[in-house]
């Protein structure tokens, strides 16, 4: 069992940056693969980025954020981060952190493959 709490969301102008954090409580955080998803108003939840468990050596990004967002994890702090640069209005959404201890896969983009979810944090990018 793991609980996830996201933070770091807010209002930013286009071209700006934000760093989201997802703090996990529970045991064995390093054994969980992690993911970031987002959901805009009126749209389905979509994959943003994922990182493998342990050393996080396997990372995926959606095409829409590749080159602008960076995911990382700090197992000593039980935290996964999403650094978001060059933000665009279309990045506006509620961002969710997700975790799952099952492998394979090393990294998942399907939200159905994540058992634990945070409550979300709002990111709004103004033009």
Give your account of this protein's structure:
With 127 residues, the protein is mainly beta. The protein is 0% helix and 48% strand. It has no helices and eleven strands. It has strands at 3-7, 10-13, 18-25, 33-39, 46-51, 59-61, 69-74, 79-84, 93-100, 116-117, 121-126. Strands 2, 4, 5, 6, 9, 10 and 11 form a seven-stranded mixed β-sheet that branches. Strands 1-3-8-7 form a four-stranded antiparallel β-sheet, with no helix packed on it. A hairpin with a 7-residue loop joins strand 5 and strand 6 (59-61). The radius of gyration is 13 Å and the shape is globular.
Fold topology:
Layout: E1 3-7, E2 10-13, E3 18-25, E4 33-39, E5 46-51, E6 59-61, E7 69-74, E8 79-84, E9 93-100, E10 116-117, E11 121-126
Parallel strand pairs: 2-11
Antiparallel strand pairs: 1-3, 3-8, 4-5, 4-9, 5-6, 7-8, 9-10, 9-11
**Oligomer description:** single chain
**What structural category do the secondary elements indicate?**
mainly beta
- Describe the largest sheet: 7 strands, mixed
* Helix amount: under 10%
Overall pLDDT level: 97
Global shape: globular
List the secondary-structure elements in sequence, H or E: EEEEEEEEEEE
Radius of gyration: 13 Å
Separate helix tally: 0
Number of strands: 11
Q: N-to-C terminal Cα separation, in Å?
A: 40 Å
Q: Kindly estimate the percentage of residues that lie in beta strands according to DSSP.
A: over 45%
Sequence stretches where pLDDT stays below 50 over 5 or more residues: none
């Amino acid at each position: 069992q793991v609980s996830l709490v996201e933070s770091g969301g807010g209002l930013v102008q286009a071209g700006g940056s934000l760093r989201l954090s997802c703090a996990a409580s529970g045991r064995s955080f390093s054994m969980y693969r992690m993911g970031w998803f987002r959901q805009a108003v009126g749209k389905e939840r979509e994959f943003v980025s994922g990182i493998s468990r342990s050393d996080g050596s396997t990372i995926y990004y959606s095409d829409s954020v590749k080159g602008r967002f960076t995911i990382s994890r700090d197992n000593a702090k039980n935290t996964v981060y999403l650094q978001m640069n060059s933000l665009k209005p279309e990045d506006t959404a509620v961002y969710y952190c997700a975790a799952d201890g099952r492998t394979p896969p090393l990294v998942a983009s399907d939200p159905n493959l994540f058992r634990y979810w945070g409550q979300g944090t709002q990111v709004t990018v103004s033009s």
